[in-house]
Amino acid sequence: MAKIGMIGAGSWGIALAVLLNKNGHDVTIWSALPDEIDLLEKEHEYRDKLPGVMLPMDLHFTIELAQAVQGKELLVLAVPSAFTRATAHSMRELVSEGQIIVNVAKGIEEKTLMTLSEVIEQEIPQAIVAVLSGPSHAEEVGRGIPTTIVVGSKKRAVAETIQNIFMSQVFRVYISPDVLGIELGAALKNVVALAAGIADGLGYGDNTKAALITRGIAEIARLGMAMGGKLETFSGLSGIGDLIVTCASMHSRNRRAGILIGQGHTMEEAMDEVKMVVEGVYSAKAAMGLAQKYQVQLPIIEQVNAILFEHKPADEAVKELMLRDKKVENTRLPFEDEV
Fold first, then answer.
1. Pick the catalytic residue: 49, 189, 230, 285?
2. Residues of the chain with pLDDT > 90: what percent?
3. Partners of 62 in beta bridges
4. Is residue 189 annotated as part of the catalytic site, yes or no?
5. Residue 271, pLDDT score
6. 147-152 and 171-176 beta bridge pairing
7. What is the mean pLDDT of the chain?
8. Distance (Å, rounded) from C-alpha 252 to C-alpha 6?
9. H/E/C letters for each residue in the chain?
10. Which of 120, 125, 159, 239 is surrounded by the fewest CB atoms within 10 Å?
């Protein structure tokens, strides 16, 4: 049994806490919101975010960060990406040398263009930082529906430690050394999922969805490889796997927000309606910043930014994508008369 601190009480943090409790671990859940902790302690259910997922009675809840951090064998950082730096900064003096932190949020810091693991390492240099990602909606993980994810760490021993803690008969865990690739796939798929939702809101069909998923992963891989990520990662769980589930499922807050935008709502109205953090909105600008830095073309993500922040009509964005200059699908494949 491991002592684990769950830093964040959103739907993903709660779902993972339930999983870890069922695996036999001692889990303490922290939230900065006293009302949230009171609700969880009294109801043992988060009806707004995870209805029907009953929380085990032996879960611990606290608003004191030290209680969730100190003396824990593993810390799971599950706050929204926009709050990762502030939360990590608050944890700095509480984390011991070599304590493992696994980040499960998905995003890129807009101002610095840093991945979230880089942010955590900067704020808590004494920690060992890993990531967990893959096609994994909290609503399904909380109910014990079979799910497969990947843990990324620069050190195999750390990855295997996390793998052993999370692995169960309904939660299969793979390991990978490509931390950067995993994080980029996790963050950028949210932007493509917004595009998929916008297409749904416009009334487009399966052909359009398949095109967005296929060309979306091409964009993600193009940028990710330019930054040092590995192609194998983008064809795996945290790449195409996470992109498929986020673009296709109504559990996806990014897709749901996109649908509303496609139907004519503003970005702000869509986020208010979803009532949860829409990570793709925060990652969209950062993705364009990275594209400019590494001189990579991201036409789908570029159009999503124009819709979100320049009030470009969604149907015009789609027409512009369709009427781009003619391209070869894969420049690595030569034609016979070009060899």
1. 189
2. 82
3. 30
4. yes
5. 83
6. parallel
7. 94
8. 22
9. CCEEEEECCCHHHHHHHHHHHHCCCEEEEECCCHHHHHHHHHHCECCCCCCCCECCCCCEEECCHHHHHCCCCEEEECCCHHHHHHHHHHHHHHCCCCCEEEECCCCECCCCCCEHHHHHHHHCCCCEEEEEECCCCHHHHCCCCCEEEEEECCCHHHHHHHHHHHCECCEEEEEECCHHHHHHHHHHHHHHHHHHHHHHHCCCCHHHHHHHHHHHHHHHHHHHHHHCCCHHHHCCHHHHHHHHHHHHCCCCHHHHHHHHHHCCCCHHHHHHHHCCCCHHHHHHHHHHHHHHHHCCCCHHHHHHHHHHHCCCCHHHHHHHHHCCCCCCCCCCCCCHHHC
10. 125
> How many residues appear in the chain?
339
pTM over 0.90: yes
